Amino acid sequence: MPDPLPSSLPWLVRRDDDTQDEQRKTTAARARAMDAHVLRTAYFDLVGRPPFQEERDAWLGKGVEELLDHLLGSEEFWQEWWEEQLYYFLLIDTFRPETDSAQAVPQKLGEGRLSVRDALHRIALTSSFDLRNPGADTFVTVVMEQLCGMIVQKSARELELGKAAYDGGQARFLGTGANSQADVVRICIEHKQAMQHLVEREFERLIKRPIPKATLSEDGRRLFRDPYDYLSMVRSWFLSESYLDRLLNPVEKSNRLFIRGMFVDLCGRMPEEAEMEPMRYALDGLSDARPLRSVLVRLLLDSDDVELRDKASIDNPTKWVGEQFERLLGRRPTDEELKTFVTVFHAADCRPETIVYALTTTPEYHAY
Amino acid sequence: MSYQDPSRRDVLRTAALTGAGLGLAGSGLAGSGLAGGGLALPGTERKTKRVVFIAFAGGVRTKETFGTPANVPNMVDMSKEGVLFPRMRTANLGHFGAALSIFTGISEARGIRENSRGPDPTVFEYLRKDLGLAASDVWITTSGGAQQTNYAYGLHPEYGPKYGATTLDGDGIFNREFKDLLTRYGLPEPMEGGEKSMLDKLRKGIRTMGGGDPVKEAENLARIEEYILSELTRGTSDISGAGAGDAKALRLARNLLSIFKPKVTGVVLQNADIAHGSFNGYQEVIRRNDAAIGELWTAVKEDEELAESTAFFILPEFGRDRDLNARRGLDHGDGSDDLRWVSCLAVGPDFKKGVVNKDAHQVIDVMPTICDLFGAEAKLSKGGRLSGLYR
Fold first, then answer.
1. pLDDT digits over A17-26, tens only?
2. Which of B31, B54, B75, B148: disulfide with B384, CB 3.0–4.6 Å?
3. For residue B212, which residues of chain A lie inside 8 Å, CB to CB?
4. Residues of CATH 3.40.720.10 domain(s) within chain B?
5. A16 vs B: CB within 8 A
6. Range(s) of the domain holding residue A359
């Protein structure tokens, strides 16, 4: 689960005097005809980035359902799914699987040639996974914990059986005969708790809140029966009441999403891997990444990679400031904000970069 | 000095000085907090103003540290200036859970690869909250990447991020790839006064809820931002090879001590876990880390202010298996004494010198001891205080 937001953030969508019901009605209406906030949030949730300018132009005012038709199951969606799974297993940096077969997984998911269960199975069989989790104790513990959501301290006997099988001995692990490392992985991935655990963590990842018990029970069984049913299950989540709640309650961006969003917002492009990985690795090294995020924003703004309009060419600062709020924060400025920003804009020491820097280093920009 | 064979004089002196503490050891109360051997006498003022708290983690057996003095000559020298506790009980909770328990004083199972914060407050939060310390007073440098930033603070509603330690992951930030990237883009120029003033006006003009001064907050962050940028030019990024992550974490701690003189500097090492595949590599990591700890200790001793006021606590989160695995490495999961019992070294101006305290304690006793040292209370911790520590 992402960390709880600082108390300064939840007002983002809430209207001050609205009751919870009114907020939900308003948000539901906005989901039927997406405004900048809903569109930006849905893009982040589905493909891990904000929309590009042309996508904003194409999708503003349209409904979430249509957007789901467009993005769910796309190659970009599966690529994002794959990256998030690798991060979940902490297969990052030097442990990232780089083989052709591993890199082909998102495409095969998109083509329906692999299910999500197959994809997780492939991850756990990579040499990267083995290197990341060396030794019987670590390997079997991680497989039980991360694939099945088990607490090994409460399943000490199963852990010992799994370790025996890992070392080549005959053992009855989780009720099934096993005598190899591959058997341990297969038994866990085919265990009913594996899909239940996947449903639970995927709901939290996408909808940003704990899954309701009934949904967990039903969707866990559903995915266990048919692991190819993942997309229709996710679609139902995005059209549920839970997603309306999610839209009302922004959460903090992970460092990975922050970097992707920063590049799209400032450079109009996605970061290259050679940019993404060192930046994410560096930001992940801080419990409070804001100082370094701020350095990165300045780095880009001072580079030739960001093309903001010359101050002299901005003939309508009120309109331009409003556009920056909507583009970067997904909302219109309040009257007071607009007045302040336009006044400062006219000062000789203020550059367009100053405005963008202020907006992209506000706590609001760190959430979505 | 060897942990296995403390001199008779050491033992007698320990017994004489700790008195009740030794007596309680057999009763099972030592380390329960009831032993009370660590409490200062009324009216005495402690000299300790700073603590360096090193989790010599990654799974390190005493056999390869104080059991093989040639591996750790610096820590052996330090032990002559402090107290060695060779009987510290641990729980095999995986690296993450076990190391986290050192900082929370609560042994609680956490997933090995779980990348989320724990529910309990850490030593950093207790100290920042109880003593009103600033973020720049409490740091933690780490070696193990994203997961280790979770040691900075937990999710307890009375504590949490606003009392967390400022965390730097040595290998995460100070690596060649990131430095090259910054060089390619060009480090940001300092903002001119006029533009800075405009920025402050803009920040004040953006609506926020929940109070707080956005400009002041930005200034606090800018100070840390400045430190990170300057550290990037100091050569930490150029450290490479086996154990580089640990070396960077210790190097950062040394630099932080000289610049900020923090009240608490936590360090979490991790590279010893190379032992799964290489016993020799594991020993090499221990030797390198001992050398770096020696440099850190020397730097403290050479600084008059730090020398008189800084205490060190060094301990692993757990040990390793008794026997080598098929790859001639050492795993951690056999439940042996080598895994479950580790050593803790405590050196500081208020502590005894040259003592081996063989009372049974727990690794979770260390953080309540540190809180007590500063006059704070680790009220949710399940650990006690180390008996037989104080002069």
1. 556 676 677 6
2. B31
3. 8
4. 8-186+238-374
5. no
6. 311-366
Domain count, chain A: 2
Residues of A in contact with B209 (CB under 8 A): 7-11
Last-in-domain residue among A225, A248, A271 = A248
Contact B164 A288 (CB under 8 A): yes
Minimum distance, in Å, between the CA of residue A117 and any CA atom of chain B: 20
Q: Does the structure show a pLDDT above 50 at B31?
A: no
Could you report the per-residue pLDDT of A198-242, keeping only the tens digit for each?
999 999 999 999 999 999 999 999 999 999 999 999 999 999 989
Distance from C-alpha of A74 to C-alpha of A106, rounded to nearest angstrom: 10
Is position A347 within any domain?
yes
The fold of B8-186+238-374 is: Alkaline Phosphatase, subunit A (3.40.720)
Q: Tell whether the torsion through CA atoms of B95, B96, B99 and B101 is positive or negative.
A: negative
Does A288 reach chain B within 8 Å, measured CB to CB? yes
The DSSP secondary-structure symbol of B157 reads T
Residue A278 in contact with partner chain B when CB distance is under 8 A = yes
Considering the domain boundaries, does residue A176 fall inside one?
no
Question: CA of A259: how far to CAs of A166, A201, B275, in Å?
Answer: 39, 23, 35
List B267's β-bridge partners, or say none: B54, B141
ipTM: 0.81
Cross-chain Cβ contact A145/B111 below 8 Å: yes
Report yes or no: A23 at the B interface, CB cutoff 8 Å: no
Closest approach of A255 to chain B, Cα-based (Å): 10
Residue B359 phi/psi, 5° resolution? -60, 150
Q: In the block, which residue shows the tokens 């000490």?
A: A156
